[in-house]
Amino acid sequence: MTSKIKKQKQIFSLLNNRFANLLEVNDPDTAFGYKKAEASSEISEQNLLINKVYNFYKSIIQNMNSGLIAADLEGDINFVNQPAGKMLDYSREDLLQKNIYDLFSDDEESQKCLRLLFLPGKKIDDKEVKFKKKDNSKILVGLNISSIHDENNNFDGIVMLFRDLTEIRELKLQVERMERLALLGELSAGIAHEIRNPLAGIKASAQILQDGVDNDKLQHQIVDRIVREVDKANRLLKEFFKFAKPTRPNLKFHDIELIIEGVHLLLKSNFQSKNIEFKTEYETGLPQIFVDDTQIEQVIINLFLNGIDAMQKGGKLKIKVYKKELSVLENARGSSGNPNGKLDYVILQIIDSGKGIDKKNLEKIFNPFYTTKVDGLGLGLSICSRLTQENGGKIDVHTEVGNGTTFTLALPAFVHN
């Protein structure tokens, strides 16, 4: 225990050198608060000040948003604050029994950082690495590392400060995807418009020929085929326009339960014919969502149909709806009543028990014209993403091959621009 206390003293002295001399006391138990004073008259003025300084720094370290871990030159952990344990799903006591090498992931970047840890005088700032949590899952962290020196200024260990970047990285990827889709949408709208004009001319010419064809069966079939193919191309362009240039949403407050039940009623025969069980789970006291109900209904229809297609041999489609406070999304800026940067969203999860999506395809599924279906156009999820964005929401996906897919919609429950 004495060595642990000594290391803790060194860490606190790093925070403010002005108080370093006050921490050099003969009774570390009293200095570090492990005993309660029996009577205030028995505690010296110096010890009172030491305890005050200790409690002040303890409060800062244990309540900061970042994780803090210190280790000796062998890598044995000798100090942990509460946020570090919480981020890694360990108790502080468990982490104190571990070595720093146990925390780093085995990917190349993390191992490279690990090799630099104990180089004398080495300082690492804002390095992105992956840590292993208690269940061996990975967490992306932003890492800062400084050296600890003893009373003789000898290199004696390291102190690491880190924060969880997982949510930040996901939001960044979401914003990048939205920007990419918006740019592609603008480009596509122009291309689609230019294609429609010659198609209209081709169809008009084919119809004139159709009227002039007598009884020549082959010619009649050829002209009919031209008209059908032009109509097919026009239908494709109409779907493409929904993605490239969706109608400006008519935003009003709506009950999410009514939208979901309406879609289920519309697709009820599809569920029955594929032997798919439909189950809903609504949190009580759900607020209304501020969206265009027609556009969000189209999103939900597409996601339901995707789930049905993923369960060709039957299965279960579960709908889970609940309220959650989230940081205001980029396209919801200008919202009223936003004192702390967080507002109410209604979270809709569509969970199927289908075959799942291969991870190598996951980054592409929202791209227009990307599809794994033989007869698919590849516009369904692109339209879902674009319409959700236009309504101030967010769409995300989690999947595991063989264990189904979960699409998550975050829909605003507040007035937004």
Can you give a write-up of this model?
- The chain has three domains: 2-164, PAS domain (Beta-Lactamase, 2-Layer Sandwich), CATH 3.30.450.20; 169-244; 252-412, Heat Shock Protein 90.
- α7 packs antiparallel against α8 (217-244), α8 runs parallel beside α13 and α9 crosses α11 (293-309).
- Strands 2-1-5-4-3 form a five-stranded antiparallel sheet, sandwiched between helices. Strands 7-9-10-12-11 form a five-stranded mixed sheet.
- The radius of gyration is 31 Å and the shape is elongated.
- It has 417 residues and is an alpha+beta fold.
- The protein is 43% helix and 22% strand.
Distance between the termini: 58 Å
Number of strands: 12
| Envelope shape | elongated
- Number of separate helices: 13
Tag the structure with descriptive keywords.
417 residues; alpha+beta; Beta-Lactamase; Heat Shock Protein 90; 3 domains; 5-stranded antiparallel sheet; 5-stranded mixed sheet
